[in-house]
Amino acid sequence: MGAIEDRIASLGYTLPDAAAPVANYVSTVRVESAGLVFTSGHVPRNADGSFVTGRLGEDITVEEGYEAAKNVALALLSSLRAELGSLDRVNRVVKALCMVNSAAGFTNQPAVANGASDLLVEVFGDKGRHARSAVGMSSLPANVPVEIELVVEVS
Question: Strand 28-31's sheet: what is its strand order?
Answer without folding.
Answer: 28-31, 36-39, 146-154, 90-101, 131-137
